[in-house]
Design brief:
With 245 residues, the chain is an alpha/beta fold. It has six helices and twelve strands. Helix 3 links the parallel strand 5 and strand 6. It is globular. The structure holds citrulline.
Length: 245
């Protein structure tokens, strides 16, 4: 959105955002996905929806269906209509109803397990609705407290089979007893948000020390400069919804 500079902010201080630079960075991000063999379908900019670029928060896409969320920030609720239209050709749609709220950034799917962050954006009613929608599909929904960051996926994301990248200050590592955990470098607290596509991981260029840790494990890391989007409290998972076909 050309109004990105008016985005919601919760845990980071407002800094000037260069909208043109943000657009250029987003273009590079799209090219990175295209190079990985992803077919990118871009949605039109939302002039009055400052946070519209963060499409991840508006839907949860599973093999069986997509769930249109009800974002926790009222300023973001109108974002869902365009995303629902875009997903309808690919998935049956379910949705989260008032008063529940869910931001997709709070939803981490690992196999049949769906971890849901109880952040300032996602409410217990939203979690219950997810449980009701997903239990018949044999997904197990686990709510988790998150502290100090915007979303669960600010604190933990999947980077390889059975492997999570985590900032233990923001989420309890004990919630993932059977997974291999890779810690972010302590100097890069926002470094836990990585976007795994196939065998590669799209990752912010701003976190080289955490990147080194991933590469030491043999993971292919594709760095992208998302500095302007980071000023809007976004990172790499939040700018796309992955739909497997
Ligand atoms: C917000 O506060 O909603 C946006 N400024 C940032 C959302 C980032 N979303 C995400 O990481 N899933």
């Amino acid at each position: 959105s050309p109004s990105l500079a008016r985005c919601e902010l919760t845990h980071v201080a407002r800094e000037p955002i260069d909208a043109a630079r943000a657009v250029a960075q987003h273009d590079d991000y799209e090219h990175c996905l295209t190079d990985l063999g992803v077919e990118v379908q871009s949605l039109p900019p939302g002039p009055d929806l400052p946070d519209a670029v963060f499409v991840e928060d508006t839907a949860i896409v599973l093999d069986e269906l997509a769930i249109i969320t009800r974002p926790g920030a009222p300023s973001r609720r109108a974002e869902t209509a365009t995303v629902a239209d875009a997903l309808r050709p690919y998935r049956e749609l379910a949705s989260i109803a008032a008063p529940g709220t869910v931001d997709g950034g709070d939803v981490l799917i690992v196999g049949r397990r769906v971890y849901v962050g109880l952040s300032s954006r996602t409410s217990p009613s939203g979690v219950e609705q997810l449980q009701r929608i997903l239990a018949p599909l044999r997904y197990h929904v686990t709510p988790l407290p998150v502290n100090g960051c915007l979303h669960l996926k600010s604190a933990v994301t999947q980077i390889a089979p059975n492997t999570l990248l985590i900032n233990r200050d923001w989420v309890d590592a004990g919630a993932f007893p059977n997974m291999r955990l890779v810690d972010i470098d302590p100097s890069e607290p926002h470094g836990a948000n990585a976007l795994a596509i196939g065998d590669s991981v799209v990752f912010p260029a701003a976190y080289p020390r955490t990147r080194d840790r991933l590469e030491e494990l043999g993971i292919t890391v594709l760095p992208v400069d998302v500095s302007e989007l980071a000023k809007a409290e976004g990172a790499v998972t939040c700018c796309c919804l992955l739909v497997e076909r």
